[in-house]
């Protein structure tokens, strides 16, 4: 049995090709503008990593923003459901998944069977998403990774009052002009994201038991993870590769659908 | 489905509704031309029976805003308002109303504008902003405005005081209108108007309840526009006929096993003012997911079910005081819970309107309340009444798809749902 899940996100496209129960490989490419081409490429790449070809894959499930642009997928499924399925597979005691991607953030509450019981996602705005950090990092002239490192060195986190990405950029420029240390600006930016995501989490009644798992590209930013953990007063688990959890979930859905045929 | 079903075409009642709406606005334009009656612009739950009893032509800017939204014309009016310096986050019904007014006054081609008012009446039972909206209308049209103050109902504490307070203001309104029109108020004519309203209200509320049947003969979105006659035309005896014929048509569907669309799997509650510009998208999306919207507390806004010709003045005051949006959040949550039970609904979609805070602020509470009480799934989507800049089809689509996937996975009998 060989199946695949492909997650076409706003910034990056991810694929997981799963063989039998536990052997898998993944691939990741920037999404770009040709969604079909990137979907094909990312699945082929993951298949090759596993020593197979695209044609060996028996069923593919597509998810993410570009899911409808994957004609070779047998099914589509929302990224929230796939994310929950993937996170539950890795951590059966997970009850809350926080996913922060390129242009959206989500809080997903799951039950002891791994089913979604409540969820919320950000509104039509890039506040509280990876894009916010990218724009902020560009404005400060550093990489996103450097932004996280700067944040950890801050001794005086300042408050960024703009949640809007565009206005935050203006605010950063004025803070630079006032000679505010970059470290303190970086820390303020991280807090801005965490504050937004924390509100999202609370809106679904997250409960206080079970594991909290964080996925998506922003989960690689340990400054965000530790700040969110201290804000929530909970430990947060980050999977080894947090960006492929949703694609993995899609692959598991493909596997279950293949099995039920 | 348990038995074989047939898929229904558009309800014949939609055509009759269309004619009622067209005739209403045609008559209003004729009245403006002939000047045979004064024109008043009013709010949804003001004591409007008094206006009808005194033979005003009564128009509703909120209903007009919904029409502009559904016809994708509201953005034009909103832009005119914003060009004047009003901000983007201001209520979009208000922006639409001020924009069409400014366009009309300045000769800028508004969409089917409401004939200009001679008088404005506003009650603040629906919204905390609306009095200010009306103030601006009064300024631009240079016509008088009357404000009916409707204090928020605190259950069991000051209800009688509120009704007395409103009744007193209705007395003041009558005196003002007598002076404004030079005509004497006729209590018998009010009794007749209230009697017609009572028949219309009964027909409207009975019609809505037919969707309790499983399977429902219509979706809530099919029924929702039929609040228009009970809101705008209930003083006319023929409105009760509209609902009588509509009930016949719906009951006929039930007898013949006709349903609104194929593959209806989930009976779902809708909360909030519809996103008028997105009705086609939402209807198609929900149908594709097997979700049948069955009812909404929004219907209750247009019930006016306290109308009683034996107590015309008191019952008009009560309709104003007990308007659904003037009730406390606990009342709304319990009312919603009862709807879930009465209509046997398994989940709810709460449509947050980004510029309508007075309505939307209660949604999280109500969604959470019914979820805890009944163990049902709720989802909150985000958009707006008539301004599509606050709406994202993709994000809304993902939320609804996830919602449907969660309903499927949580059902014990997925794929074998008996409606």
Describe this structure in words.
- The complex is a heterodimer of chains A (about 260) and B (about 425).
- Chain A is an alpha/beta fold.
- Chain A has 2 domains: about 1-80 and about 245-260, Nucleotidyltransferase, domain 5 (2-Layer Sandwich), CATH 3.30.420.40; about 95-240, 2-Layer Sandwich (Nucleotidyltransferase, domain 5).
- Helices cover about 40% and strands about 20% of the residues of chain A.
- In chain A, the strands form 2 sheets. In chain A, strands 3-2-1-4-5 form a 5-stranded mixed beta sheet. A 5-stranded mixed beta sheet of chain A has the order 8-7-6-9-10.
- The two termini of chain A are about 15 Å apart.
- The model of chain A has no long low-confidence stretch (mean pLDDT about 90).
- Chain B has about 425 residues and is α/β, with parallel strands linked by helices.
- Chain B has helices at about 10-35, 50-55, 60-70, 75-85, 90-105, 130-140, 160-180, 185-210, 220-225, 225-230, 240-255, 280-290, 310-320, 330-345, 355-360, 365-375, 395-410; strands at about 5, 40, 55-60, 120-125, 145-150, 260, 265-270, 290-295, 345-355, 375-385.
- In chain B, the strands form 3 sheets. A 4-stranded parallel beta sheet of chain B has the order 3-2-4-5, with helices on both faces. In chain B, strands 8-7-9-10 form a 4-stranded parallel beta sheet, sandwiched between helices. A two-stranded parallel sheet of chain B has the order 1-6.
- The longest helix of chain B has 23 residues, at about 10-35.
- The interface of A and B includes residues 65, 117, 121 and 124 of A.
List the main descriptive attributes of the protein structure presented here.
heterodimer, A: 261 residues, alpha/beta, 2 domains, 5-stranded mixed beta sheet, globular, B: 419 residues, Rossmann fold, 4-stranded parallel beta sheet, disordered C terminus
């Amino acid at each position: 049995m060989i199946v695949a899940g492909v997650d076409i996100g706003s910034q990056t496209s991810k694929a997981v090709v799963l063989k039998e129960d536990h052997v898998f490989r993944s691939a990741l490419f920037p999404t770009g503008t040709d969604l079909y081409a990137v979907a094909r490429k990312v699945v082929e790449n993951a298949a090759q990593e596993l020593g197979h070809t695209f044609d060996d894959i028996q069923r593919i499930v597509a998810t993410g923003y570009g899911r409808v642009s994957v004609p070779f997928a047998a099914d589509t499924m929302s990224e929230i459901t796939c994310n929950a399925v993937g996170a539950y597979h890795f951590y059966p005691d997970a009850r809350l998944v926080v996913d922060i991607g390129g242009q959206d953030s989500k809080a997903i509450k799951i039950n002891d069977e791994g089913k979604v019981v409540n969820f919320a996602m950000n509104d039509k705005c890039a506040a509280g998403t990876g894009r916010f950090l990218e724009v902020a990092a560009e404005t400060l002239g550093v990489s996103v990774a450097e932004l996280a490192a700067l944040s950890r060195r801050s001794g005086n986190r300042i408050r960024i009052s703009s949640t809007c990405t565009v206005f935050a950029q203006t605010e950063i420029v004025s803070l630079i002009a006032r000679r505010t240390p970059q470290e303190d600006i970086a820390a303020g930016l991280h807090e801005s994201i965490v504050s937004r995501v924390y509100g999202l989490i609370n809106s679904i009644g997250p409960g206080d038991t079970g594991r909290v798992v964080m996925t998506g590209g922003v989960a690689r930013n340990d400054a965000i993870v530790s700040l969110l953990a201290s804000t929530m007063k909970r430990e947060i688990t980050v999977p080894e590769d947090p960006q492929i959890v949703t694609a993995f979930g899609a692959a598991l859905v493909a596997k279950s659908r293949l099995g039920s045929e | 489905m348990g038995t074989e079903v047939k898929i229904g075409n558009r309800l014949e009642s939609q055509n009759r509704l269309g004619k009622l709406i067209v005739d209403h606005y045609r008559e209003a334009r004729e009245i403006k031309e002939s000047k045979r009656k004064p024109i008043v612009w009013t709010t949804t739950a003001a004591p409007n029976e008094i206006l009808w009893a005194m033979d005003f032509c009564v128009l509703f800017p909120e209903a007009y805003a919904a029409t502009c939204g559904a016809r994708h014309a509201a953005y034009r009016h909103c832009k005119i308002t914003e060009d004047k310096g009003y901000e983007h986050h201001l209520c979009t019904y208000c922006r639409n109303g001020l924009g069409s007014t400014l366009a009309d006054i300045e000769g800028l081609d508004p969409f089917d504008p409401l004939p200009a008012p001679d008088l404005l009446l506003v009650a603040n039972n629906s919204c905390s902003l609306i009095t200010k909206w009306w103030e601006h209308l009064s300024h631009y049209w240079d016509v008088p405005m009357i404000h009916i103050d409707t204090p928020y109902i605190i259950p069991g504490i000051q209800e009688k005081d509120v009704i007395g307070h409103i009744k007193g203001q209705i007395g003041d309104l009558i005196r003002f209108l007598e002076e404004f029109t030079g005509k004497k108020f006729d209590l018998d004519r009010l009794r007749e108007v209230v009697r017609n309203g009572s028949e219309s209200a009964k027909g409207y509320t009975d019609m809505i309840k037919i969707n309790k049947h499983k399977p429902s003969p219509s979706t809530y979105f099919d029924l929702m526009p039929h609040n228009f006659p009970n809101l705008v035309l209930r003083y006319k005896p023929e409105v009760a006929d509209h609902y009588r014929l509509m009930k016949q048509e719906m009951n006929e569907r039930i007898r013949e096993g006709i349903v609104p669309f194929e593959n209806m799997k989930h009976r779902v509650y809708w909360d909030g003012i519809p996103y008028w510009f997105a009705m086609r998208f939402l209807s198609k999306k929900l149908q594709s997911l097997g979700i049948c919207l069955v009812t909404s507390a929004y219907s209750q806004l247009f019930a006016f079910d306290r109308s009683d010709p034996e107590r015309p003045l008191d019952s008009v005051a009560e309709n104003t005081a007990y308007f659904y949006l003037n009730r406390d959040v606990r009342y709304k949550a319990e009312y919603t819970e009862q709807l879930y039970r009465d209509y046997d609904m398994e989940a709810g979609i709460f449509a947050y309107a980004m510029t309508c805070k007075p309505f939307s602020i209660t949604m999280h509470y109500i969604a959470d309340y019914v979820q805890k009480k009944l163990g049902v799934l709720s989802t909150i989507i985000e958009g707006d009444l008539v301004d599509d800049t606050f709406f994202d089809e993709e994000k809304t689509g993902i939320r609804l798809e996830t919602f449907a996937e969660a309903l499927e996975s949580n059902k014990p009998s997925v794929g074998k749902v008996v409606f």
